Amino acid sequence: MLQSVAIPPGTGKSHLLIGLGIAACEKGHSVRYVTAAQLVNELAEAADERRLSRFVARYGRLELLLVDLCRLGNYADRCSRLVALA
Q: Using CA atoms, how far apart are residues 29 and 64, in angstroms rounded to an integer?
């Protein structure tokens, strides 16, 4: 896991993450790239629509999930509450 705390902004973390995803795809792995904000929004929507189990199953089938923490903002608290529900 690349931690944004340890690596300063603007050093290419997102670029590296995308490159890792492309390399995994080229080797035939199932990969999804998503920003943390997108993931939290999808998770919240799934919770609102009472389809968390489908959400978890869909992401659980992936061999590699790449979550980019760019512009995470205050999503972290919301995410931790929603993940506890899943």
A: 7
Six-digit token string for 54: 């489908």
Q: Where are the alpha helices (DSSP H) in the chain?
A: 13-26, 36-48, 52-60, 75-85
Range of the domain at 39: 13-85
Structure token pair of residue 53 = 């189990």
Query: Which is higher by pLDDT, 76 or 62?
Result: 62
Task: Check residue 20 and give left, alpha or beta (phi > 0: left; psi -120 to 50: alpha).
Answer: alpha
**Which H helix or E strand runs over 74?**
none
Domain assignment of residue 3, yes or no: no
